[in-house]
Amino acid sequence: MPELLPRRRLDQPRAARRVISIDPDAFGRISERLARFLGTGKYLFWQTLIVVVWIGVNLGAAALRWDPYPFILLNLAFSTQAAYAAPLILLAQNRQDDRDRVSLEEDRNRAAQTKADTEYLARELAALRLAIGEVATRDYLRGELDKLREDLNTKPRKTKGSRSEPITRP
């Protein structure tokens, strides 16, 4: 049986056919900037000003009434804005969550490395304390030499004669 071409295999996903290639990272950055702008006082000020002017013109100027009292077009504009703003804000939050997750993982790795380093240093310090306990100190050596000197001074010294005399040194 002849092998099917890769584009016709049913067990393989199709290659993506995109007419327009969109960089997801660039789109994410743009959406984050837009989401940040939507949460500022500057945006709220300008939106409020546009709404007040819209309502004022549609109520006051009889010749310019393009959206009469129930303001259907204004409601449509708000609905469209909400339909785009909510996903953009969610996208920005997801990107922030991803950054927080990476940062948290780095913090965990750093904390684990710090803990391992601290435990290693504690073991090394304990080993040094044990090693220092086995090393003769200056005071210990001085005391041992003093004892040896006393022993040498008090031991009888044999001479050619039959008697032994203790060694006395000034």
From TrEMBL:
Superkingdom of origin organism: Bacteria
Protein known as: DUF1003 domain-containing protein
Cross-referenced InterPro entries: DUF1003
Membrane-crossing residue ranges in chain numbering: 43-66, 72-92
Hydrolase keyword on record: no
Organism (species): Amycolatopsis dongchuanensis
Pfam families xrefs: DUF1003
Region (Disordered): 151-170
Key words of the record: Membrane, Transmembrane, Transmembrane helix
Coiled-coil regions listed: none
